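Please describe the entry underneath.
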Amino acid sequence: MGKKCTLLTLVLFIFFNVSLWAQSANDAALMKQFHQVSETEIYGWVEKLCSPEYKGRLTGTQEYIDVTRWVADRLSEWGVKPGAPDGSYFQWFDRPWVEVHNRGEIKLLLPQTGGKTIFKEYSFPDDAVVGMATGGGEITADVIFAGYGITAPELNYDDYNGIDVTGKIVLINRDVPYKNTSNREYSKWVKYCYHAEKLQNAVRHGARGLLYVDGNSANPNISYDPSIIVFGISATVCDDIFAVCNKDMAEILKGIDKNFKPASFNTRV
């Protein structure tokens, strides 16, 4: 047994040393290639990619496609073989994209005695940020509080039960009412956390606007539907809406989280 162990150790030692030598040889070859590229060349490539002719390379634009073709030409010059199934350097994705041409705006309408209405405007980006994949247009409508914006029949939970949001603006929160992420039960809820699912559910119920309580309203994980206008809003906007209808959103959410019972309603704001 001792001889076998000695022999095995010797084989492993030889293999380890050969591996180290091969790794060192590869590293040396790699470093040699690195040193053949000058700082001036690298700066030139960066300068080209950032040049005004590509207008920022916004995904989906012609300028984005043009710059990728420029990169492909360089790869071809350097002898880098293309890896796409069609023998090219490109892999195309069929995904919609939108251009947001302005910041948009949110105004809270506050009716006064005597028939007058005053407006409270919210600033960008602290209180209101137009959604990355929003539809366009303008809407004035009641805000419907819809909890977490979830419809999960298999969990016997539906924030839209008993409310009609057709043509209205829904206000929903991120996450789900089940907060114990370490429990296996959470896996049944997690798919309802995603921005895309919440937006699609609002569209299925006929909403025309969506106010999403989220500090990062430009989250790319949201689906595009031209029929609905999407805004991310701050706690300040929420507090104002709930103050008008004499309610506290934080307390309502606590009740939902505790009892797993939706508490949706029309704020009339």
The helical segments are 2-35, 39-49, 62-77, 195-204, 235-244, 249-259. Residues 2-35 form the longest helix (34 residues).
